[in-house]
Amino acid sequence: MSHLFSARDVSVRFGGLQALDKLSLDVDEGTIIGLIGPNGSGKTTFFNALTGLCQTAGGQLLLDGTDITGLEPRHVYSRGVTRTFQRSRLCLSLSVFDNVVIGRQNSLDLNIVSNLLQRGRFNAAVRENHERVRALLATFSEMLAGRIFDPLHSLNMIDRRRIEVCRALVAEPRLLLLDEPSAGMTPDETHEFMDDILKVRSNNPRMSIIIIEHEMDLMRRVAERCIVLNYGRKVADGTFDAVVADPWVQEAYLGTS
Ligand SMILES: Nc1ncnc2c1ncn2[C@@H]1O[C@H](COP(=O)(O)OP(=O)(O)OP(=O)(O)O)[C@@H](O)[C@H]1O
């Protein structure tokens, strides 16, 4: 069976540290995969390797069977892999609209001269982008959509996270990578955010999502499959219930054995 994405024996080294050690995993179209593991187990490194932000020392990253190993981040992005970051990369002084629309940079004409000369085309592009961003914000709430031109710094934590997700979604990815999206949220906000992810999923049934999370309730609710890393190696792969029942996972990660 062909997979949307596959990692084959992917290794990453930082000097003497083996951050990923022959990691192999498959992601099918339209699935949500949870990636869990202790701090420093290589989860973010995997996202960085996949999005071209760090070099691999071996192995292959395949998107639809095409080797994307070593591609520059913008080329991975234009092939339909987008992401959020553990630490926010939003620009607080810009508007919500600006922060989201920058995710469509591949389709924006940023040439001032051509935009001045072709005002009709420019205005149509602005209208189209406005409608697209507004519709995305409305996925989360009409209230957020109504704040499209507010400065980002006026939004609370959960709405900022939603903006990061919208920025990753605006390019209509095939594979969305979410790196600890609930970090810094209260339990109530985390609960709301779970509903958000499920909404995103039902609006984009063919898109696949890999989500790194320490919040186990969130994983239980949204992830169809969980993969557990430890010291850069895959140590478990299965449904949430199967993975958390694994004695190794209980002892090493959940501390409940
Ligand atoms: N750029 C880098 N240079 C050197 N070492 C790095 C670099 N990036 C990550 N590491 C190391 O690689 C290992 C894996 O880090 P990584 O951030 O992928 O872990 P993680 O599972 O995402 O952890 P966390 O849950 O804390 O975010 C860690 O030991 C980390 O210190």
UniProtKB/TrEMBL annotation:
GO cellular component: plasma membrane
Keyword Ribonucleoprotein in record: no
Domain of life: Bacteria
Domain ABC transporter: 5-256
MF terms (GO), sorted A to Z: ATP binding; ATP hydrolysis activity; L-isoleucine transmembrane transporter activity; L-phenylalanine transmembrane transporter activity; L-valine transmembrane transporter activity
InterPro entries, A to Z: AAA+_ATPase, ABC_AA/LPS_Transport, ABC_transporter-like_ATP-bd, BCA_ABC_TP_C, P-loop_NTPase
Xref: Pfam families: ABC_tran, BCA_ABC_TP_C
Any one of the GO BP annotations: L-isoleucine import across plasma membrane
Keywords for the protein's UniProt record, in alphabetical order: ATP-binding, Nucleotide-binding, Transport
Protein name: ABC-type branched-subunit amino acid transport system ATPase component
Source species: Aminobacter aganoensis
Taxonomic path: Bacteria, Pseudomonadati, Pseudomonadota, Alphaproteobacteria, Hyphomicrobiales
